[in-house]
């Protein structure tokens, strides 16, 4: 059965257009036009393969939906919004979105981004083969997971790629531009502050471990370094 994409959009014509393109690409689509209804659907129904989420929704703002979903699921989320300011994009990413698409957008490009996200998540059902890393960490490449002393971190696909890269060379300073290439492989012109947003989320999740881990150091004016005891 083809993968299901949940489209949460309150503009019927745009939603219908996106659903048409998704179906032409071989996906199934489900459309909801209310944020509160969408959140209830994600809590109680079968989880879709990905969510395309508008921001300005009736019932519940799309950013609040994203925040709430991240409390119980790492389903890939693409925010599709008319809010084009950098601060809006950064906020969406900080709340756990995997990508942020500004309206008006190309439906073909949107479908391509969905496909890219799903390719990165495809290995999650494969048999677990952990690769030991320094500092008690282990990487499950197929499942796109990182564990610390058998505690799994609830990482989005972007966060997984960033932390995995830092783990591959602990102690090395990575420039923001180097890490940015891991976030957007299509070399889009986006601010390197996007890296800061994702690192902030990773730090928060590391701090939630028992005992907490605070091992990503900022290198002023350059980027980040992973310090492991």
UniProtKB/TrEMBL annotation:
Which GO molecular function terms does the record list?
phosphorelay response regulator activity; transcription cis-regulatory region binding
Annotated DNA-binding ranges?
A: 129-228
- Name any Gene Ontology BP term: regulation of DNA-templated transcription
The opening ranks of the lineage are: Bacteria, Pseudomonadati, Pseudomonadota, Betaproteobacteria, Burkholderiales
What positions does the domain Response regulatory occupy?
4-118
Against SMART domains, the record matches this protein to: REC (SM00448), Trans_reg_C (SM00862)
InterPro entries in UniProt = CheY-like_superfamily, OmpR/PhoB-type_DNA-bd, Sig_transdc_resp-reg_C-effctor, Sig_transdc_resp-reg_receiver, WalR-like, WH-like_DNA-bd_sf
Q: What is this protein called?
A: Two-component system response regulator BaeR
Which species expresses this protein natively? Roseateles saccharophilus
PANTHER family assigned to the protein according to its UniProt record, in alphabetical order:
REGULATOR OF RPOS (PTHR48111), TRANSCRIPTIONAL REGULATORY PROTEIN BAER (PTHR48111:SF59)
Positions of post-translational 4-aspartylphosphate modification: 54
Keyword Phosphoprotein among UniProt keywords: yes
Keywords assigned by UniProt, alphabetized:
DNA-binding, Phosphoprotein
Q: Name one Pfam family in it.
A: Trans_reg_C
Q: Does the keyword DNA-binding apply?
A: yes
Q: Which domain of life is it from?
A: Bacteria
GO CC, any one term: protein-DNA complex
Domain OmpR/PhoB-type, residue spans: 129-228
């Amino acid at each position: 059965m083809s993968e299901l994409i949940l489209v949460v959009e309150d503009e019927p014509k745009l939603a219908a257009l996106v659903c048409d393109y998704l179906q032409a690409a071989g996906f199934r689509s489900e459309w909801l036009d209310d944020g509160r209804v969408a959140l209830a659907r994600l809590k109680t129904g079968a989880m879709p393969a990905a969510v395309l989420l508008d921001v300005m929704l009736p019932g519940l703002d799309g950013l609040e939906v994203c925040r709430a979903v991240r409390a119980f699921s790492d389903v890939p989320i693409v925010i599709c919004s008319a809010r084009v300011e950098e601060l809006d994009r950064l906020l969406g990413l900080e709340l756990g979105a995997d990508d942020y698409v500004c309206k008006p957008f190309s439906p073909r490009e949107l479908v391509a981004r969905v496909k890219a996200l799903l390719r990165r998540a495809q290995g999650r059902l494969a048999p677990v083969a952990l690769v030991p890393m320094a500092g008690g960490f282990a990487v499950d490449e197929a499942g796109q997971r990182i564990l610390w002393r058998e505690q799994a971190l609830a990482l989005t696909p972007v966060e997984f790629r960033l932390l995995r890269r830092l783990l591959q060379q602990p102690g090395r300073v990575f420039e923001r531009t180097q890490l940015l290439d891991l976030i957007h492989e299509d070399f889009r012109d986006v601010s390197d502050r996007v890296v800061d947003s994702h690192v902030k989320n990773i730090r928060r999740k590391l701090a939630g471990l028992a005992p907490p881990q605070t091992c990503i150091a900022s290198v002023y004016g350059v980027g980040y370094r992973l310090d492991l005891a």
